[in-house]
Recover the amino acids of this structure.
């Protein structure tokens, strides 16, 4: 077994693939396990929101707070960023340096648009009287969507780091695994948003 | 660690000095760090237990104040669960898993070092509370709304919640690492059904950790928001349901019970065959039972909540699932008995502890089965009967299993065999003292003595049994001291172990004790379960000791320790203030960034 399987970085994807038991790279496997763990994390947050829904004696309540049209738009933006993420990975795997840069930047910008939309939404809700300390809706909503927004923000930072690597021409096809793993994370955060958007915003 | 001629051939340096321990990424050294730290906290938790028992020795006693008593039982449980039993298991994961599956290190050596440093800092942080205004005092389960600002105005609960978050990060990081290591780093031919049972149980435990800890993380986040921001997640006046905490806590807490016991079951499944001179009876059944327990562990949490009044349907469901989970556990016990049946038993200390584990754990299982029945449970909830039960499964079970592991693998870890005579004294003293301490608690509990109350009246009929319990606890202390003395004597002048002092069948016994830094000069091919016990597969396994040319091992790194320090500062900054938190964020990001871009050649 070469060092490639023992360490986290330098090994090119194809080399690592030959030295592990399953043929999958260690980092990818770690990430799948991490996403499983994250499911329980967001699952607990969403479950709490649902359990506490309708228990508030004082408003504001969800149905007179949400702006479904606006949030549908930002959900659409986030979903489109999954498409650009796939294009970034495809470009990276094909050795298309320019495409990698363009699509990584597009994904990061779409993610930033989403986070910006969330900041706007939060400030609107805050004006409307939805506060963390206000009622259970405020607490469960802000903590759930706040953690999701934090995940998107971490993803954006990650994407810009990859973008910088691409600019320095360090992100060739041999390192496409780096993009692929960031993509796994990014798609997961998108899927969580689909769950949140459906269960929190649409079903009222 | 010993420098061997072979190590020089392989071009791998052995290192020494404090800095080499801080920067080490060698799974064996990380295992040592885990084990040593956990043993120290085991002693601290033991002293807390002694103080509890001395307080309860006589009725209306005033050895400690009621407030301090609350801190003692909270910290005793928290320490034993998160800072002693879990990390002692982690110590074996670290040291033994790569050796048992034929790997040169874990999948992510630096992540492994990181999880140790986070664990250490979490322990230190939690125990700082004793000197910073009072330790946590709301119980290790931290039920709301006792933990609210209104009822716990001090900082004890803050230390507890933040400390558990820090320790949780350490457990998660380690669990991810071992899942990947076990799935992906096995030697050629080490198929899943050729893995030693301890490796299997580590895998199941790691999955339980990565799925259970996020749930307690979320519950603790809510609690911290309630306490620091003023939200109402657990405040009934605002419409919140304090039962939400109980559900979240036990959805984590019950898998946590199996996180504590499954590694011990794995250890016993290694020790019994070796000292019975027989392969494990029904290996696949033991493995499947362990996996089944891992699954079922998710469906029983509300049996901790029967007294809440969840209604007949929920009570029936959780009673049935709890009774069901006893089946795979019982199956394992019969497998262990079947392993010993007709074997050539060698009652070495490790074997004694393993047999002690079977007996005591069975007793704990039987009392557990009693409170699977909701009507019986209503009588037993919050009494010493439950205290007796958990100590039979966690002390009689997990700790006895861990001691079996220590006596069994200490030679592999250090190259010296623990003194057999002292070991026997330790075992018999501990066995007698353990039963003397905890057996009377069954009766005193059924008589109605409540848990977590600092004293009791003289006319309730509890006096004699409490007295003998305390005598038992006072006898446990010398038993543990004999063990500590044994370690110190053995490290200085113990009998050299050689490669295989017990005639074990698994791969770790094929290589020197202690193993060279790279473990295997050549990664061997595995041809069967218990490879050293079959002629052909034994020869294939012994190839491991041939060094063929240069072996590249990952270099030391201080970034895991730096990142761990930053992360712990960030989290403790919630309590200590921004002047700890902000530098913590910077340090953590700096550490992670350098870690990510650190060259590894």
């Amino acid at each position: 077994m070469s060092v490639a399987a023992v360490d986290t970085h330098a090994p090119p994807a194809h080399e690592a693939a030959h030295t592990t038991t399953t043929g999958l790279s260690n980092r990818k496997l770690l990430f799948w396990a991490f996403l499983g763990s994250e499911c329980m994390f967001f699952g607990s947050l969403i479950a709490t929101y649902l359990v506490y829904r309708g228990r508030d004696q004082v408003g504001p309540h969800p149905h007179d707070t949400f702006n479904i049209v606006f949030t549908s738009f930002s959900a659409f933006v986030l979903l489109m960023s999954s498409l650009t993420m796939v294009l970034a990975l495809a470009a990276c795997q094909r050795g298309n340096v320019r495409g990698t840069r363009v699509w990584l930047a597009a994904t990061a910008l779409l993610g930033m648009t989403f986070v910006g939309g969330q900041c706007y939404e939060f400030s609107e809700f805050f004006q409307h009287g939805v506060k963390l300390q206000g009622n259970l809706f405020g607490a469960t909503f802000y903590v759930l969507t706040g953690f999701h927004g934090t995940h998107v923000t971490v993803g954006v930072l990650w994407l810009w780091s990859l973008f910088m690597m691409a600019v320095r021409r360090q992100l060739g096809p041999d390192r496409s695994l780096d993009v692929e793993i960031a993509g796994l994370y990014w798609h997961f955060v998108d899927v969580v948003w689909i769950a949140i958007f459906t269960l929190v915003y649409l079903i009222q | 660690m010993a420098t061997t001629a072979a190590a020089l051939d392989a071009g791998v340096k052995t290192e020494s000095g404090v800095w080499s321990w801080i920067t080490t990424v060698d799974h064996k050294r990380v295992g040592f760090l885990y084990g040593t730290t956990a043993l120290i906290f085991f002693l601290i938790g033991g002293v807390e237990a002694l103080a509890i028992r001395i307080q309860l020795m006589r009725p209306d006693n005033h050895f400690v104040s009621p407030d301090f008593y609350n801190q003692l039982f909270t910290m005793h449980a928290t320490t034993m669960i998160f800072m002693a039993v879990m990390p002692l298991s982690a110590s074996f994961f670290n040291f033994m898993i790569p050796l048992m599956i034929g790997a040169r290190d874990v999948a992510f050596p630096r992540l492994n070092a990181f999880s140790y440093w986070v664990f250490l800092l979490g322990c230190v942080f939690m125990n700082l509370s004793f000197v910073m205004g009072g330790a946590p005092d709301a119980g290790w389960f931290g039920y709301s709304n006792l933990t609210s600002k209104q009822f716990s105005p001090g900082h004890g609960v803050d230390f507890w919640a933040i400390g558990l978050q820090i320790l949780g990060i350490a457990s998660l990081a380690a669990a991810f690492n071992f899942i990947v290591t076990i799935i992906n780093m096995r030697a050629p031919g080490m198929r899943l059904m050729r893995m030693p049972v301890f490796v299997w149980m580590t895998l199941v435990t790691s999955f339980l950790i990565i799925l259970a800890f996020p749930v307690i993380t979320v519950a603790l986040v809510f609690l911290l928001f309630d306490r620091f921001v003023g939200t109402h997640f657990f405040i009934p006046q605002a419409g919140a349901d304090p039962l939400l905490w109980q559900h979240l806590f036990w959805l984590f807490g019950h898998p946590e019970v199996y996180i504590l016991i499954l590694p011990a079951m794995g250890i016993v499944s290694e020790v019994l065959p070796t000292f019975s001179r027989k392969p494990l009876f029904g290996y696949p059944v033991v493995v499947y039972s362990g996996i089944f327990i891992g699954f079922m562990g998710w469906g029983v949490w509300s049996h901790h909540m029967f007294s809440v009044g969840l209604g007949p349907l929920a009570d029936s469901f959780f009673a049935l699932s709890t009774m069901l989970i006893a089946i795979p556990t019982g199956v394992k016990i019969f497998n262990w008995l079947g392993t010993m049946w007709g074997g050539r038993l060698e009652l070495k200390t490790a074997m004694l502890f393993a047999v002690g584990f079977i007996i005591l754990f069975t007793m704990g299982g039987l009392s557990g089965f009693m409170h699977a029945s909701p009507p019986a449970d209503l009588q037993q909830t919050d009494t010493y009967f439950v205290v007796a039960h958990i100590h039979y499964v966690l002390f009689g079970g997990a700790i006895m299993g861990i001691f079996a592991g220590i006596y069994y693998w200490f030679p592999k870890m250090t190259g010296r065999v623990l003194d057999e005579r002292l070991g026997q004294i330790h075992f018999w003293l501990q066995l007698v003292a353990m039963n003397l301490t905890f057996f009377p608690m069954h009766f005193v509990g059924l008589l109605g003595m409540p848990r977590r109350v600092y004293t009791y009246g003289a006319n309730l009929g509890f006096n004699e049994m409490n007295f003998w319990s305390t005598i038992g606890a006072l006898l446990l202390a010398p038993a543990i001291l004999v063990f500590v003395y044994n370690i110190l004597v053995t490290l200085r002048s113990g009998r050299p172990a050689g490669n295989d002092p017990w005639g074990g069948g698994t791969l770790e016994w094929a290589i020197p004790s202690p193993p060279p830094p790279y473990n295997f000069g050549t990664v061997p091919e595995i041809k069967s379960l218990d490879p050293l016990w079959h002629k052909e597969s034994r020869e294939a396994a012994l190839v491991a000791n041939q060094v063929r040319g240069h072996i590249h091992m990952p270099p030391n790194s201080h970034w895991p320790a730096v990142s761990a320090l930053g992360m712990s500062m960030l989290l403790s900054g919630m309590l200590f203030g921004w002047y700890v938190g902000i530098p913590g964020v910077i340090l953590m990001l700096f550490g992670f960034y350098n870690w990510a871009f650190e060259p590894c050649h």
Summary: The mean pLDDT of chain A is 89. The radius of gyration of chain A is 20 Å.
